[in-house]
Amino acid sequence: MTTHNAQHSRQVRFPKWLQFIILLIVFSFIAWLVVPLALGTQSPLSSFFGGPQDGITIGLMNQPESLDIRTVDNPAADRILLGNVYEGLTGRNNDNSVVPGLASSWSVSSNSLTYTFHLRSAKFSNGSPVTAQDVSWSLQQLLEHKYPGYQNLDGLSSVTTPNSSTVVLQLSHPNQQLLWELSGLAGLVFNENSGDTGSNVVGTGPYTVQSVNSDSIVLTRNPYYWGSMPHFKTITLRYFANSAAETTALQSGSVNAAIDVDASDMNLLKSNSKFKVTVGASTTVATLMFNSHVTSLMSDYQAREAMRLMINRQQVIQAAGGLGIPLGGPIPSLDPGYEDLTSAFPNNEQLGKEKFEYYFTRSYTLAYTNEVPEAVANFIVSQIKNAGWTVTAYKISQSQWNSEVVNNMKYDMVLFINHGSHNLGYWTTGTNWWNFDSPVADQEYRDAIQSTTYEGYITNLQKAARTLASKQPADWLYEVQVANAWDSSLSGMPTNMTDDWLPLGTLK
């Protein structure tokens, strides 16, 4: 007989009451970790595993006076609310192209008259589901009250809702810009029962408004957001008077980013490895507008042509600090139909002088807005004066703009910063404040918008832009570039169009 001295393992048995306590502790711990993530708040262990963090502060300028973007033309509020708090049926990306928004997909009929949108499963920040009725109601309110953006729904004849997740838009004529317009004010979806007026902000974006202070606006994570939950629980938008103040705050660490810094501050921050400096394109154009009314010499084509020949766009950009791209035409680089037209309208100072010799009157007035860099206005004045002509320049305030420019056009030329995208029609309609009309360009633009194909849309946009530029109602000097500085630890920053549109949901 062989004797084995090996020890026999014995199963350890806990009393049932102790097993219950252990399971209760385990499930409580799991809930402690998981429930905050489900609610869109910060997990207790997020700092160990790189999860969502508490928040960051972003410096920028031009704090909006209200957050009502529904009933008030409010570009400063649009900039921070579009894509962050409110969303449209469609969205747009960093290249200004249309992407899905609250509609996950859509189809367009062969005659471009019927658009069928399929809504994703989404909720408003108050927990209410987004339905086709909300979309229909939002569009009807926009058109009925002529809220900002209503004019961009040209041709819309009816809105129907076959079911709670489907919206059908019927047009009386094609509108090739409709999908893009639905990514902005024209396509915003509001909760019919929320009473949203700007003080009670209810949207569908990754953030909602937590508080509004004298120099800041705080956005907080929307727990009901349909997409990927934002990395940061809060984003504080802190407003400064100028680029220098923003830069100082970034260097001191009191903000994590500075938006729209000027060229000198950009160059200063570039040398510091603590910051990432990005330079992006925009749809904003520095424009020298000519008064085409018969009371102004600039109503004469040759006078407008001579003035354009006199202006050296590249030197104008240098006067602005180097943040710009020569343009020469009315369509910026991120808009459909863009072409580089600078070679068609080159700088030729001598030829400009020769064309101006025809005129007896050599005294002109130039107005420029507060938004225009002082150095740009001074440079243009100096170029004209160097040719032997008299120029009287006036810096006008926002309060003077409507009375002296829009209503009365008191000046021969106006230097201003033209914001906006997809707005070629603004130049061609003949109802503009600079009194210029081109029936040919206007028809080409209408042919573009009402084309049944995207190819026809682009072709006719380019025709209209060339026709308009050849009539020389203005000198489109340069497309403004936007410079931003970010803490080097950040990623997912927007780079283009940040002067008009600042989506923050992808920041990490």
Mind explaining what this structure looks like?
It is a single chain. The chain is an alpha+beta fold and 508 residues long. The chain has a domain at 285-480: Dipeptide-binding Protein, domain 3 (Roll). The chain is built from 15 helices and 19 strands. It has helices at residues 16-39, 46-49, 75-81, 132-145, 178-181, 243-252, 263-270, 301-310, 313-319, 349-356, 374-386, 398-406, 425-428, 439-449, 454-471; strands at 53-61, 90-92, 98-100, 103-108, 114-119, 156-163, 166-171, 207-212, 216-221, 232-240, 257-258, 275-280, 285-290, 324-326, 363-369, 390-396, 413-418, 474-480, 482-487. The strands form 4 sheets. Strands 8-9-10-1-11-19-12 form a 7-stranded mixed β-sheet, with helices on one face. The chain has a 6-stranded mixed β-sheet with strand order 14-18-13-17-15-16. Strand 8 and strand 9 form a beta hairpin. Helix 9 (313-319) packs across helix 11 and helix 14 (439-449) runs antiparallel to helix 15. The longest helix is centred in the N-terminal third of the chain and has 24 residues, at 16-39. The chain is globular. The N and C termini lie far apart (72 Å). The model is unreliable at 1-11 and 35-52 (pLDDT under 50).
Main attributes?
508 residues, alpha+beta, Dipeptide-binding Protein, domain 3, seven-stranded mixed β-sheet, six-stranded mixed β-sheet, disordered N terminus
In short:
The protein is of the alpha+beta class and 508 residues long. The chain contains 15 helices and 19 strands.
